[in-house]
Structure formats: C-alpha cells, structure tokens
Amino acid sequence: MSGVDGSAALLPEPVDGEAAQRAEALRLKKSHDEEFRVFTEQSYHTVERILRARRWDREAIKDALQEAYLQGRVQWPKIRTYTEPMAWTIATARNKLLKEHDRRQRERAMPPEDLPPEAKPDIADAWEAQETLRTWLQQLPARQAEVFQMSREGFSNQEIARILGLADISVRRYKAAARQHLRQLAEQAGYTDSDNRRRPGGAHGPR
Question: The whole model's pTM is what?
C-alpha cells in the first residue's frame, strides 16, 4: 500500500508541471503580442514612407506591408532579437514589391505608369510641405528617392547600404544626386536655397 500511495503521491507533479509550462507559454505569447503591437505602431508609417519614395503603387505597398507584418508576427520571437527589426520589415516588404513588379512586367510588356502630380506653387503649412516634397521625390530616379527618404527617416549610410545591398559610397552618391535634383525642382517652383524658403513672387522670386 505504501508503494502505491507513494506512486500516487508523485502523479500530480507532472500535471502541475505541464500546467506551469502552458501558463508560461501563454504569458510569453501575450508578451510577444504586446511587443509586436507596439513595434507595428511605431514602425508602420516609417516603412510606408520609405516604400512610397520608390513610387510603387499604393495598393501594392499596402498589400506588401500587410504580408510583411503578418510574416513578422509569426517570426517575431526571432525577429525581436535582431538589432534592427524595422530593417527586416523594410527588406521583406521591398522583396515582395519587387517580386510583384517582376510578375506584372512579365504579364504585360508595357505596364502603364502613373504620372506624378505637378508641384504645388505655394507651401502653406507643414502638411503641404510634406506633400510637395513627396511630389518632388516622385520625379527623382527611384533609387535616389528611396535612399533620400531612408536618410530622412534617420537611417545611417551604413544601414541604408546594408538594407538596400549597396556600397556605402553609392549611398552617398545617391543622396548627393537627390539633393541636387531637389534643389533644381525647388528653384523651378520658385523657391530659393535660403533658410526662409521664399515663395514664388517674393522679393527675389520670379515675377
């Protein structure tokens, strides 16, 4: 009887151990869910702006972002350990967009391209300034616009080079070329290089 009683006394321990493991797994999942929610809120619009700089279709960008973040949620236990989870998201979404672009190119020999809207003649507020810059970026070569936008979002030259698969010197050249083109577009729109960004028709602007 004592042997039976002793064996029976040991039975609850594995059950309790399994329950503890399930509880810990649930706690870890909730923690990762919350981490990923915060990461998504903090990174989504930055990643979106970087992708839009390359003039991809908005719906295609939306689909690529959705797929990238869904994939990121599944792999979050691994991605969360990366030094730059956002860099992984950018690269994943870009790859999806490039694959979709290649697929469409194969399906139709001459895909229609959206014409960029004309630059606005006057910058009234910060929002309009952002829209004007976005319009100008759409008129730059795709790689220049992409590199410039990533730089504006705070990525270093080394980070941009690693994410886009470029040499560091190439990143610097793209940024310099982008700045030059943007200055030209600003001058064509009637703005100067001065700090106060005179408007068209100003003291030194076109008459």
Answer: 0.61
